[in-house]
Amino acid sequence: MPMKHSPRIIIIFILIFALSLSACFAQATPAPIPQAIVGPSSVPTAEITFSTPATNLDPAGMSNSQDDPFIRVYALVAPFPTVTDGVTSDELRSLWTSGGTPLLMDESTLRAFTAIWGEPASGSVRSVDAERLQDVAWSESAWAIVPFESLNPIWKVLTIDGQSPIRKNFEVAKYPLVISTTQSSSGVDPSIHSNYDPSKLTTIIMTGVTALVRATAVTMEYKGSTYPGEKVRDIFREADIMHVSNEIPFFTGCPFPKPEAGALVFCSDPKYMDLITDIGTDVIELTGNHFADYGPFAMYETLDMYNANHIPYFGGGRDLQDSLKPALFDVNGNKIAFIGCNKPDVGRFPTATDFQPGAAPCDFPYLEAKINQLKAEGYVVISTFQWNESYDYKPNPQQVKDFRLMADSGASIVSGSQAHYAQTMEFHDGAFIHYGLGNLFFDQMGDQDWMPPGIRRLFFDRYVIYDGKLISVELITAMLEDYSRPRIMNEAERAGFLQEYFYYSGWMPLTPTPTPTITPTLTPMSIPPLRGTPSLLPTNTPSQ
Questions:
Q1: Which residues, 6 or more positions from 266, have their beta carbon under 8 angstroms from its beta carbon?
Q2: d(CA 536, CA 381)
Q3: CB atoms < 10 A from the CB of 202, how many?
Q4: Fold of 201-536
Q5: Fold for domain 36-196?
Q6: pLDDT band per the 50, 70, 90 thresholds, residue 26
Q7: How far is CA 11 from CA 5, 18, 368, in A?
Q8: What are the domain boundaries of the chain?
Q9: CA 461 to chain centre
Q10: Tens digits of residue pLDDT in 32-47
Q11: Strand pairing of 327-331 and 334-342?
Q12: Can you tell me the distance from the alpha carbon of 333 to that of 5, in angstroms, rounded to the nearest whole number?
């Protein structure tokens, strides 16, 4: 007797067959080959194929197949003395299609972006041999597109739509200069899936003079200990290593501050330590001239406070040996060493000895040998100075000699912590030297006759270390307000400041810009001229 199937069973068989057939067709459809990863929607995408989201750079999710995607990140760069900080993606595409500022790159980069963006503007976009690219860009004031691994400090990395691969908040998926190819065409080890790995990046911010005394301290008494850092602390906290050069000892017996203190002998109330911790300080420099102002007990108390807050220090200490020790860090696989000293200022400021605390004296044979040793051990060395004070943008000839000696010894960064007035910068023997950054937290508002114009302007230098080497320097510019508090400069202030200092550094002609006006003080106070001040104003400007 033939078997009979119910209608329900027949329907089930039909559904199973249909699902199986659908699965077969799905497997037969090839996935698109990844070509490029594009971020902002403002970039034309007609000729671009999207692939795996660029934020997924975790090698754990990839095999070592030659067919795996290799994500290559590029950077838009310009010669270091460039005032422009960034462009939009539309502006970049306009340079590519219509011309404007010359845009250079090596031949392989030009081919890669031509495949994505189409033929570039003739003459304006062109290829240059990789080994000549930087020299040509500097000579022509041209911009360039370079692979991330080709970055070095002589380039300035420009942002695109606010995104930059040297920033901690970089979002690869929003960045247009990213191309995805297969491992076989990348020419690199199959176990490496990108030329950019954020886990290998370390940022450091170096700052100038901190002196929580006089009018700065009075303002803190009125408005709170953390008030001076409120407009910059987010930038400082973001850094992996935040540096502060605090010249002043904390002392429990410190008298209430006076804005007109005549004698240049200083201390700070221990409660001001709240400012140091609030901005995320990771390392303290003790090379300052005033560390010994209140004697050994104040210095011991200060060192105990830093230890209690787990903040390492360098450039000063409990005795000579302690003062000479570098502060060592290992962050994201990058080994970084800080070492500094106090250049004797006419013998008026005592330094550490075998039996007393103080700032580290400048023992140049020791520094040369120690820096050389640290470099040989794989450290990126940052050498700092409390050099003789000068209210002049030009460093003293002996200052230049001493700073360059540290670079010649192997320091990648040499930074002047003494300057109340910002000084020039240079590249020397592969190192970046900034002779003076200006004040960070100090009361010099420029409202006294003896103060030079522009004393309110200051630098924070952000250094980017990647895979064991310095790859970028960012000049963050700020303006002092209210005798205590720096704020980030506006666009016009920043342009004028950078143009002026690039000119002083011998890199570009000077374009006159308006002088910033004095910001009305928010804390009513009158500061008379300091006694003895004129004698403390040596100049490096040759007499006429």
A1: 211, 213, 214, 247, 248, 290, 293, 294
A2: 31
A3: 24
A4: Purple Acid Phosphatase; chain A, domain 2 (3.60.21)
A5: D-Maltodextrin-Binding Protein; domain 2 (3.40.190)
A6: very low
A7: 10, 11, 87
A8: 36-196, 201-536
A9: 5
A10: 322 333 333 333 322 2
A11: antiparallel
A12: 70
